[in-house]
User: What shape does this take?
Amino acid sequence: MPSATLLGQALISGVLAGGMYGLLALGLSLSWGLLRLVNLSHFALAFLAAYLTYELGTTYHVAPWWSVLLIVPSMFVIGLAQHWIFVRFKVNELGSLLITFSFAVMLEVGIQLYWTADYRRFETHYATWSLKAGPFYIPVLELILCLVAGVLAWGTWLWLRKTYVGKALRASAEDADIAAAYGVDHRKLAYLLSGVGAAYAGVAGTFIALIATLAPAQIWAWLGVVFAVVIIGRLGNPLGALAAGMLIGASESIAMAILSPAWAPVVSFSVLIAILLWDPEWS
Amino acid sequence: MLLEIRNLHVGYGDAPAVWDVSIDVDAGEIVSVIGPNGAGKTTLINAIAGMLRARQGQLRFDGADMTRVRPHGFCERGIALVPEGRRLFTKMTVEENLELGCYLPRPRAARAQSLERVYELFPILRQKRAQAAGELSGGQQQMVAIGRALMAQPRIVLFDEPSLGLAPTIVDDMFDIIVRVRDGGAAVLLVEQNVIKALSVADRAYVLEQGRIVATGLPDELMKQSHIREAYLGV
Assistant: This one.
């Protein structure tokens, strides 16, 4: 059994790492829960944003807090374009899996053609900064990531709860015909939401560039665990997505500390299965 | 004439469900369409609400052609639906359901007054306003569905089987409410299987059977027709 300090450190690192799961899950959860579109290319978009951050940072020496201002709106536009394809071909839930899988593969190939399959690392002098709280270390970048994820999740939650657009989106998710009978133009709102989801992938990508080592095949690395997070957090629930991300991050980290690192991939789906056994109607 | 329907044909895919239907509703009127299960009543009312597209014929509201208006444009012109089975947004609160009724800019500007009016009409909803609509009883859910329609400040309210699945005492209340909706200034088009009730509140009525209008007239006249007495009243 590891020491209390080690467990505490594992918990802190896990929760902070889970912020990334939550941030990636946020956009996925919105389009799946409210539009019934499962966007597998969400991860590829995040990595495209990460590579762009890397490129702007290393080639043009643009700091990531400036490049994010360019990348996020670009991703929003890509989200709109993607949604145009969904509308054009009347894509349903299952169809969205197939078509976004092909988007993801195309993006992966495109990234590989331009940036090659070599590992890329965006070196910054602040990547290793950390705060010390008692015996524990808190990495600053991941703390900022969690704060940003928290602000986005909370803001999105308020947007869905408190604004007419948010209420209309939730209503349409349940009964689109009746929402339309009360004047909701679901098509317009769906475009907006697809754009917002892709923009969130852009935010996640900026942090991926700073925290992780980039390689084209990495776009698939988080697929399984983030899917589990989306379902555990309940579809279309932004705060749930973030909380579930942190829960899974912490569980993985504790499992790694107590058992062995090889156990980490088992954790997310074990938690998911346990929840579904407890309440089959979950999500 | 507020609502003018001429020779309307509506169907699902290749199967027509409503043939050659002509109906008028004037401002301040309650008009009932009665008929058995499967006669096409819901199809007809959904076409008037914009949820189904007519394949042929005229649908005019306040003089304007509605056949090319997109589904979300019907409410804007003053048509509000109380659908069969209520179709509330069950996971949203009672108040959020009502707010969806005033989604469009014009009714949204009057949100506070409209909410007050709905809560005066249905005091129980004020108590339950933060509760998920799906948790309410059938009668209360019907109140939310009616309230949602009133929030839209409609010029006509379309009621689709409002008494279906409700306890008899609540059914009487529902018909009282329908009269009050009309007295509040909106015309009413009511589609019902409960023939006696539907005729008792109506100014005029139509009988729809197998997708066609087979009789029309004042409720008292229809009540006297032997076909209707046999088919619907069992006497």
